[in-house]
Amino acid sequence: MHESSALLTDRYELTMLDAALHRGTADRECLFELFARRLSGGRRYGVVAGTGRFLELLKHFRFGESELEWLRDEGVVSTTALDWLADYRFSGSIWGYREGEAFFPGSPILVVEGTFAEAVILETLALSVFNYDSAVATAAARMTSAAGSRPLAEMGSRRTGERSAIAAARAAYIAGFSATSNLEAGRSWGIPTMGTAAHSFTLLHDSEEDAFRAQIDTMGAGTTLLVDTYDIEEAVRLGVRLAGPELGAVRIDSGDLPIVVDQVRRLLDELGATSTRITVTNDLDEHAVAALAASPVDSYGVGTSVVTGSGSPAMGMVYKLVAHRDDQGDWISVAKKSAEKATVGGRKTAARAYDRHGVAREERIYLGDGPAGEHEGAADAASERPLMVQLVEGGLVDEQYLGAAGTRQAREHRAQAVAELPPRAVSLTRGDPVLPTVYLEG
Amino acid sequence: MHESSALLTDRYELTMLDAALHRGTADRECLFELFARRLSGGRRYGVVAGTGRFLELLKHFRFGESELEWLRDEGVVSTTALDWLADYRFSGSIWGYREGEAFFPGSPILVVEGTFAEAVILETLALSVFNYDSAVATAAARMTSAAGSRPLAEMGSRRTGERSAIAAARAAYIAGFSATSNLEAGRSWGIPTMGTAAHSFTLLHDSEEDAFRAQIDTMGAGTTLLVDTYDIEEAVRLGVRLAGPELGAVRIDSGDLPIVVDQVRRLLDELGATSTRITVTNDLDEHAVAALAASPVDSYGVGTSVVTGSGSPAMGMVYKLVAHRDDQGDWISVAKKSAEKATVGGRKTAARAYDRHGVAREERIYLGDGPAGEHEGAADAASERPLMVQLVEGGLVDEQYLGAAGTRQAREHRAQAVAELPPRAVSLTRGDPVLPTVYLEG
């Protein structure tokens, strides 16, 4: 595996750069914008995730000897372009929604300003990161709402690519999950890790009693025992007999959960294990979590559905040129005209407007140069909050958005941003975005 | 990013190992099996992909100082387990279906033999790789069938995690795609790369003519021009005027494709550009590709749908303990009993049985020790083909399955394996697997 992120890129980014270098247009100052035309899956709101990862990858977006040699051998671009790539450092500026922010159709989630050459070649990487991470975070936020105060653990590493698994754990954590099973996500991003045991562990031993004893001896009575390898009732009795009422939790991974969970709770209480928790993990999605709201479940483990965006595995975000400077230095708005894929040209800033109760009512996109905070806003709005922050200035990444600290900050911001949305935002049925997007002249 | 693949692992793999070490059961010889209980999405057959990637990752599955230090600091496992992990090298053996092979519910896609400790900790990584890669290959194979003799290019890097994008390009190639837009997939796996140009390139320039000129001057007349930024008809006329009838291709990325493609073909022919090809790329999936069968399309670019498994983004494969040796050295079959997740215990080999016309008719899974080739088979079968090969022997990976050569071999094998299936295998409607899975005593 190669350290550099530079070849995580579509070939055409480099051939366009090559052609622009030859035409003398590569140095034109440009604005690219990353946004979603719609919220796939009938989502009521989206959750931005990927920012911290993208900024880390941006720092490793370098064409080293090994990358250049391969491009040369394959004849991908001319030697002019190879020389240019050898010196590549992104030297422009990037603004964007905070990671964890709610977004809506048209929200300018990322605005990249730089020469055409230096901004266009970030397209593929930026979209890969934001499309996947935001799809996971958007699905995960629905699960967080459905779970209410009960904790959710992300356990889906085995159902997505092995490196996407790290991104998914991080996105789910930002969206309110409390932990992940993925160790690398713990190491790389400071996310709490958790785990129970698999059926194989029970099957390995000569009896369920042997297996439970081994686990309790090593992990302590506070461990979580998997009780559905053979007979659930027998396993619960056995677990309490071996660990005592201090048994941490039992995990149920199969069966008709509302019924089984009730039975297990009654049994645990009868056995005096009133503080032993029940965690369930059987192919859950947000609808299954919601359906268990009235059952005595203490926590959920979610796998496949969260790491695959629960039916919407990619966010559908695009990265479009919206303006470039002309030879006089003035910005020219540009936009594609094709009917169903029309874009709004020009530089944009964004703000969320609130009603007098502090509930979000409108996604405002201001066309023009000024920061959104300086706009007057519509007369009936009690207030508005500017949504964009500067992430990169003159090539320098703002370190506060990186690493474990940036991830924690995004998680906190997500909680606030979602709490401000109208109550119907938590609806799990397909529908329209919960806020309208309004374009205003800046 | 860390080189080692060892922490791409669920925490419970290591805590189970820890508990088994303490119990004295960690060294029990075990057989784990990777298989799918069903084909998600009503697929008629699955395509195995991921083998070559998994074997590469297996070679880097090492707990180095940095991994051990993190595990120690986090208190994930005991020092006994840390010492064991420090020396970890997989020393067991692995058999499996060839990469590119068709598979069915219950097919033993991978059989891992080793001690419990050394085999259990590969679970997460193996599943991540096979579940994602096979989901992509299975979807991609449907697109390959739908496209007939027309080439398909994989262009979905931007719609999946940035490292999954490489795996997706590789899986699609194995499933019959001819090229990818992803440069790293070209470098890492020898897959042909391709590319056209984006709308941003046209918008950057003062006119479409400027943009086309720049592209043709740099890339030659054989390039592919994107013609739907403004007006398709004008763009096609312009492209032929600038490049002449040698213009390689035009790409259409929007609009009502069957109508637009017909118009563009007529226009190109009128202009004398009879050999200029038409490539289409507008959110295609296998159904859209099939719907264009009668249109004069020359090639397809597929993005989102292929990298997200076209509605089934994870294959649903599991990794289960199926047998272990007892203290006398005899193999004991084990299986989970929960109704909807029951597994078939014991060592298995597999063969595909054919009718007398050479058409596959049955997936045979033999329970027992011998290689499938030695079984007699049912009396009415003209022949059968053993499906499993040894991938790893005593910890040593068979190099023929690695790298670009292994990938090419998998691509060839996929074509043969799919060609042998009954004709209804290419049906795009949801349905039952095209072959029944039959369990036989070995």
From TrEMBL, chains A, B:
Entry GO MF terms: glycosyltransferase activity
Catalytic activity: 5-phospho-alpha-D-ribose 1-diphosphate + nicotinate + ATP + H2O = nicotinate beta-D-ribonucleotide + ADP + phosphate + diphosphate
Modifications after synthesis and translation: Transiently phosphorylated on a His residue during the reaction cycle. Phosphorylation strongly increases the affinity for substrates and increases the rate of nicotinate D-ribonucleotide production. Dephosphorylation regenerates the low-affinity form of the enzyme, leading to product release.
Keywords of this entry: Glycosyltransferase, Ligase, Phosphoprotein, Pyridine nucleotide biosynthesis, Transferase
InterPro entries for the chain: Aldolase_TIM (IPR013785), NAPRTase_N (IPR040727), Nic_PRibTrfase-Fam (IPR007229), Nic_PRibTrfase_pncB (IPR006405), Nicotinate_pribotase-like_C (IPR036068)
Metabolic or biological pathway, per its Swiss-Prot or TrEMBL entry: Cofactor biosynthesis; NAD(+) biosynthesis; nicotinate D-ribonucleotide from nicotinate: step 1/1
Primary enzyme class: ligase
Database matches in SUPFAM superfamilies: Nicotinate/Quinolinate PRTase C-terminal domain-like (SSF51690), Nicotinate/Quinolinate PRTase N-terminal domain-like (SSF54675)
EC number(s) on file: 6.3.4.21
Nicotinate phosphoribosyltransferase N-terminal domain: residues covered: 7-130
PANTHER family in the cross-refs: NICOTINATE PHOSPHORIBOSYLTRANSFERASE, NICOTINATE PHOSPHORIBOSYLTRANSFERASE PNCB1
Function: Catalyzes the first step in the biosynthesis of NAD from nicotinic acid, the ATP-dependent synthesis of beta-nicotinate D-ribonucleotide from nicotinate and 5-phospho-D-ribose 1-phosphate.
Protein family membership: Belongs to the NAPRTase family.
Protein name: Nicotinate phosphoribosyltransferase
Species of the source: Plantibacter cousiniae
Lineage of source species: Bacteria, Bacillati, Actinomycetota, Actinomycetes, Micrococcales
